[in-house]
Amino acid sequence: MFLVSLAVCGVAGLGVPTLVRAVPEPENDDEPKELYADVAALPGLAWKAALFSAVIGGVVAATVGATWHLLVLLPLVPVGVALGLVDWRTRLLPTRIIAPTYALVIVGVLVVWAVTGDTSDLARAGLGWVIAGFLFFVLWFVHPRGLGYGDVRLSGILGIALGHVGWGELFVGVYAGFLLGGVGGLLLSRLRIVERKDYPFGPFMLVGVLVGLLVGPAAAAYYNR
Known about the structure:
Elements lengths: L1 H12 L2 H6 L14 H5 L4 H20 L4 H5 L2 H15 L4 H22 L2 H24 L6 H17 L1 H24 L11 H23 L1
């Protein structure tokens, strides 16, 4: 399953430039940003995205094993690579990518439930959506300059996926995203790689998902001992 996941995600990663290129530019963009078409035309993007997606897919498969969770997680790998790249380059998480991804992950959860009949995974996925989405919405509402609404939308997708796997993965993944975003953003601003008040949070949230998958089971076992 490791090699299959690696290959599937690698092939899917080749489509990242096409996915980014299909995103329309904002009609009322008050602040200049890099065009999506220019991001999609970055040299070597296809093979780099394929390699990155393959590695992440392999890590995910090695972490959760040959389980039905892969049906929910693996389709998110190339999408996550595309969103992380776009957010890093433009400071935006386009709805054109996020909205269909909601449908993709929800269909995956429902298919797994239909096949396995496991209502606990289904319930955790729904609660993960509510918990992560509500938390990020509150943070955005309180301090909108520190968090974009695209991050709020993305949090729901990640909450569904992590919640489907387990409580430990959900809470560690969400917390890791916050921690990495805060520490990583501070470090990048100190190094003058990004502006202190204008750095992308989405990539840190996506890395937090991997941390949740890797560390979540151990954290849950420690808490329940």
